[in-house]
Structures
1.
Amino acid sequence: MTVSLRRTTAPAATLVVAGLLATLAGCGSGGDRATDRTPASAPTTAASSPSASTGAYPTFAPADYTYRLRVVCYCPTSGPVDVKVSNGQVASATLASGPRQGAAAPSYAQKTINDIIAIANDPRSGHVKVVWPKGSDTPQRVTVSSIGRTTDAQISYVIGDVRAG
């Protein structure tokens, strides 16, 4: 009986550990994926509804801009990050508040808006929700869940205070 219980428990424990590792890897690797999408032609203030099509969110045109990013996940959190993008690449990403204000942000928070849009468009993930206000050039929030709809496997990117130029 003990052997049978261990056989049942070990694979379950392995799946749990694998899921946690995948979640942590998602915080730092940029390997987040997405499948639920609303086409770019119809940005909405509501979260996207499930769709069988691939993502079609448009890219953000400016190559030079700043914005405030909050990454919400079950990973080491840093608070809001001020991101400066130059020529389409992250030029700097610094902590916007707290005792380490001005310090370099963690690598998982060093993303351009187009990096975040690419995550929303990636067809390899289990579930994604996008909040894209009507008339806005950028999403307000992209939430990716690598394991169904479980909260501890989610990472959200919250975009605000976008300033082109």
Note: The chain has a mean pLDDT of 72.
2.
Amino acid sequence: MTGKDRAVLRKEANALTAIFQIGKEGIGENLLTSIDAALEKRELIKLSVLQNSDVSAREAAAVIAEALNAEIIQCIGRKFVLYRRSGE
């Protein structure tokens, strides 16, 4: 993915609201399944990490992106954006 592609996706993600929150329970199998379904449907999603979580946003983004074969588009503060091209 080129820098220009990332810039376009960052611009699109600016208007998104976080649809998943990662809390003190961390990243479980159920959360990964839900995120996988959302990525398949929307391609671009924003997630947030709550203050009581044991992981940082960068750590969570890296774990989820690796597990679901997604791209980390942006990570700012406690929010991050993931992208994965839909199979359809």
Note: DSSP finds three helices and four strands in the chain.
3.
Amino acid sequence: MDVFLVTKQMMILFSMIAIGYMVYRLNGLGEDSASRLSGLVVNIFNPFLMISSVFGKSFSSTGNLFWENLILVGIFYLILFLAGFLLVALLRPDSAESPVYRLLTLLPNCGFMGIPVVSSLLGTQYIIYVAVYMLAYNIILYTYGIYLVRKGNPGNVPPTTFFQKIRPIILNPGVIASVIALFIFFSGIPVADGVQSFCGYMGNPCIPLSMLLIGCSLASSDILSMLKKVKIYGFLFFKMLMIPIACTFLARLLPFDNMILKLFLLMLSMPAGSMVVLVAEKYGGKEDCAAGGVVLSTLASIITIPVVSIFLP
């Protein structure tokens, strides 16, 4: 495990968060402005990042490993989906925090943390397999994730018709972008250099803006009160250590390529994804709980990822 690489990524991440925190404290960005900006990130910048992630990659170039990876991606999200229910049953958070804890458990940071760690430890040729995790991440985020946060917000008016229920899912920019990315990946259709550059430019702001907005969210919340919540530490232990270490023993029973299994376990070791904070903010969820889970799990990953790596097959 390259501890230096993980530490470097953490320094970059928290530097961005610190800038967002200071900008908010200096009145450079108000609550209304931050909310509007989060909408741009969720609905514009992140979808373009999703599409740009599949450029230069195709299904035909991955061989049999793609199918093994696809099966593991399904197992990955099934484990985390069930783990979210178990976590809520153990911690017993209030009704507003329950959906946030479930999302923090279900959606790890496969992109910003996952890509550089996998690239360093397994090689750049395995980034294509991380992209599959990211595709599933975005589909889940923009469907089940939004549904879960809206359901946990008592201020939301529940939809009355079937179309009203599925409209936010079908017409969501994130889902549309995921479908486009899947089509490009499986069809191998060539994409003009200009289009690739455009999508790349539009997706590039996603990571720094996400971190800045997390900093703004922290600045507007009671950090000391967040750190005093005992349940958040139970979440960290369960999410960052128990789940990935337990799955290292499960992985040994699967007849898959060893490197693909290591990637699977590394993905399980990633901290909570920052997009959970933005979705919580945009759709009226407990953003302070989401921000606490993201920031503290990211900080904890400096220690927990090397610990989990000891158990890798």
Note: The mean pLDDT is 82.
